[in-house]
Amino acid sequence: MATFKTVRGMRDLLAGDAEAMTFVMDKARETAQLYGYSEVITPVIEPYELLSAKSGEEIRSRMFTFKDLGNRTVALRPEFTSSIARLASTSLKNEPKPLRTFSVGSVYRYDEPQRGRYREFYQADFELIGTSNPVADAEMILLTDRLMKAVGLRDYAFKLGHIGIIRGILSQENVDEKTQNAILQHMDKKEFDDAFKLIKSEECLSTLRGSLELKSDDVFKTAEGIKSHVEGYCKAADSAEELKNVLKLVTEGGCPIQSVEPVFARGLEYYTGMIFEVYIPELDIALGGGGRYDKLVELFGGEPTPATGVAHGLDRIVLAMQIQKTTPTRERPKIVAVVPVNEALKGEALRISQILRAAGVRVELEVMGRKMNKALEDADRRKVDFAVIVGERELKQGAVAVRDLAKREQTIVKIADLTKTFKI
């Protein structure tokens, strides 16, 4: 008989890993509620044209794409933003602005599997649609800061940039959009020599090369230096001013930015403004990132609609927690095993289990047909807290025996009072 393994780049999340993942998902949902974001659930499979429109060549080349039985080209979503932009241009187009949406689930990219990179991975996505106010951009960073704190991470750092600075320079030098995208893809990978080979203007080359030298430990000084450096490029200078405004707002909001990057690009082509990422020192891959995209909703048939968003890599956050030895602080519920002393009492054991579950008690009913001693040994091995032993003698008194497996103590408890015994 064949032995099956998971498809390369996919994995099973077993007890501990699944618990860590759901812990981070729960914290992302709590953050969404605190900031007023409503959860939406979108399809895992979308039209290829939707997902590829502004995703960037790097992601387009790594999408899981196939023909369905209707001969339509579809793909597994590589991220959430395109689906949310589709919603904003259709089902949600008449909703009051701003729209605040939250999504969590699996996304798919055919990357080379390595530490922190999988072909199926999980994201928490926040989108704020309908305003160009820089306060919205600041909110993306502040809610990310809130999530990092909520999961217990330490020493994380934010990197901030503005895609309009590079595009402003290139547009004024009449570099076409396709070439701009290729330049940005190289810059995203820090392949600056390859990026610069695509630029013909010496003035443009000089400006971009000079930008690489502007970074300093003082983020406000860096932001001011960028603006002065690109003053001959009007749109780039305006973008630098927007960057300064976001930096100021985030800092006033209580979240310091550790790095402002003059030449910073993310892999998605739909960004039009502020972009950012968050890291921990022990990992060289971002735990999350996002930015402003003001043209995507319009591209999908909606009205011109400014928007900003962020996606958090939940697998990477879990990895960061493991590296920093951050233990999820969720309180473990008490576990109760219900054990009938013989097969004739299975029905009573079921009834008592349902009474406890209705009261919110976590119950594991003995279903293996073990003898009582073996059942109790198994419960102890699996770190069950209490055993409810259903026996004929106790039932005649309307009671059961309750054993504290840690203390090795046993008492008789009336069934009517049983739920009070396990209330946390």
The main sheet comes to: 8 strands, mixed
Spatial strand arrangement across the major sheet: 1-5-6-11-10-9-7-8
CATH architecture name of the largest domain? 2-Layer Sandwich
Contiguous uncertain segments of 5+ residues: none
CATH superfamily placement of the largest domain: Bira Bifunctional Protein, Domain 2
Number of strands: 16
Radius of gyration: 28 Å
3D structure, described in words:
The chain is an alpha+beta fold and 424 residues long. The protein has two domains: 15-323, BirA Bifunctional Protein, domain 2 (2-Layer Sandwich), CATH 3.30.930; 335-421, Anticodon-binding domain (Rossmann fold), CATH 3.40.50. It contains 17 helices and 16 strands. An eight-stranded mixed β-sheet has the order 1-5-6-11-10-9-7-8, sandwiched between helices. A hairpin with a 4-residue loop joins strand 15 (399-404) and strand 16 (409-414). Helix 6 packs antiparallel against helix 11. It is elongated. The chain starts with 14 loop residues before the first helix and ends with a helix.
Which helices and strands appear, and what pairs or packs with what?
Blueprint: H1 15-35, E1 38-39, E2 45-47, H2 48-52, H3 57-60, E3 65-67, E4 73-76, H4 81-89, E5 99-108, E6 120-129, H5 134-150, E7 157-162, H6 163-172, H7 177-188, H8 192-196, H9 202-211, H10 219-229, H11 234-252, E8 259-260, E9 274-279, E10 288-292, H12 296-299, E11 307-313, H13 314-323, E12 335-340, H14 346-358, E13 362-365, H15 372-381, E14 386-390, H16 392-396, E15 399-404, E16 409-414, H17 418-421
Parallel strand pairs: 1-5, 7-8, 12-13, 12-14
Antiparallel strand pairs: 2-4, 3-4, 5-6, 6-11, 7-9, 9-10, 10-11, 14-15, 15-16
